[in-house]
Each structure stands twice: as C-alpha cells, then as structure tokens.
Amino acid sequence: MGYDIERFVGYVNEGLLCSICRDVLEDPLQAPCEHAFCTACIHGWLVHHSNCPEDRQVIDVSLLRPLYRYMKNDLNRLQLHCRNREYGCEMVCSLESIDRHERECEYSQIPCSNAGCTVQIERRNLEGHLAVCEYRSRECPNGCGYTILSAEDTQHNCVAELRTELELLRSEMICRVEEAKHEMESRLDSQRRHMVQKESVLQNEIEELKSQMSRMMSDVRSLMAAERQHRQELEQAELEKREL
Questions:
Q1: Based on the number of CB atoms within 10 Å of its own CB, is 138 exposed (0-12), middle (13-18) or buried (19 or more)?
Q2: Which of 42, 55, 71, 184 is the most buried (most CB within 10 A)?
C-alpha cells in the first residue's frame, strides 16, 4: 500500500499515484507500459493476474523496473505530514526523509521496554512511564542484591531468596567438585598407564644392555686369552732363538 494522499501538502501529480491503490507511490516499480505501482500492490496483483491493471497489457514480475530518475526525484521532494500528526506531531518534511523522522519521532507509539508490560506509550513519555511501570525492576532495598519487580515487592523474602541461592550455589559447587574429581582420576589413570608403558620399555632396554654387556665381556675374555697365547708363543720363539 502507498502513502495516504491526505497526508501530503499541496498538489500531487497523477503520475506519482499507484495505479492500484491510488495512494502516493511507496517503494515504486514501473511496468514497460510506464504505469507505476507500489511494490506490494503490483506483487499482490500479479499473484492472480498477468496483465497491467490500467491498460491490460501482459506483464511479468521480471519486466518490472525502478521508477525513472526524474519521477523518483519528484516523488522524494513531495512534502507530507508525520503519521503521528493525530498524536500532536506537527512535523512536515520531504518523502525522502519521512522514514528517518518517524523512526525518531517523539510522538511515535512504542512498547514499554519492561518484560511483561504490554503498554504502548509515546516515545516522549516513555521515561515517565518506566518510573511508575508495575513491571519495572530494581535492586532490593534491604541489600540482599536481588533484582525485583515492583509487583513482587510484598512477596519478596530476602532470607528465603538467599537460602535458595545458597542451595543452588552448593549444588553447583558439588557438581564442579565431582567433575574436577573425575577429571583428576582420569588424568591419574592416563599417567599411570603411561608410566607402566615407560617402565616396560626401560626394562626391555636394560635387558638388552645386559645382553650386550655379557657379549662384550665374553669378547674381552676371548681377546685376553688370545693375547696370553700370543705372548707365550713369542716367549717360546725367543727361547728357541737363544738356543740357536
């Protein structure tokens, strides 16, 4: 749907009106036959029809194009009243800037920001409403640290709330201790398995070293025996030499 023509100040060219809703074009598109429509209007029309609502020429969504630049400029320059005029806003601005103004307009109806509150209030009055809203929250005046709603003031019991909080903390701590315990046991088991594997490897290495040592000692004894034999042979040869 387009912008209500009653909101505009002065004359609005016929070419800037939607051919379907007859209001001023909103987010406009143009058909090849040069008739212009609001995007929402023409998309809704083409769900049930396949032609232009003005001259019945065949059109398709893929043939729709943005408005000519000069028409777009004329459209943006139109002056209109804020939609919150009925609530007291007297702002008149161009169509190009109306959306930005209305997003920030002090007369806009906005919802209360407190959870559970369904009141719609003017933006300019929101702060005053929040100060008295029955769904407003505040910190307990007795110092327990809880945030309470005004509607719960008579039901709030600091001792009961703190006891509940203490029980929750206690349960949470027990769970964390159990988790830490399981984690430590898992780590100890992993380290124990690693140490057993390491011990087995070291034991095998020790046995291998012992075996090598034994072979080396045997070789040394053989060498020493061969050396004695060689010395004896030399001594015998020396004696024989002397006798000769």
A1: exposed
A2: 42
Same domain, 127 and 37: no
- Are 135 and 65 members of one domain? no
pLDDT digits (tens, 9 = 90+) for 116-139: 888 888 999 988 888 888 777 666
Q: Is residue 165 part of a domain?
A: no
- Mean pLDDT, range 235-244, rounded to an integer: 83
What digits encode the pLDDT tens for the residues 214-224? Answer: 889 988 888 89
Cα angle: 171, vertex 172, 174; to 5 degrees: 65
The pLDDT value given to residue 127: 87
3-state SS of 162-195?
HHHHHHHHHHHHHHHHHHHHHHHHHHHHHHHHHH
In terms of residue numbers, what domain contains 116? Answer: 109-149
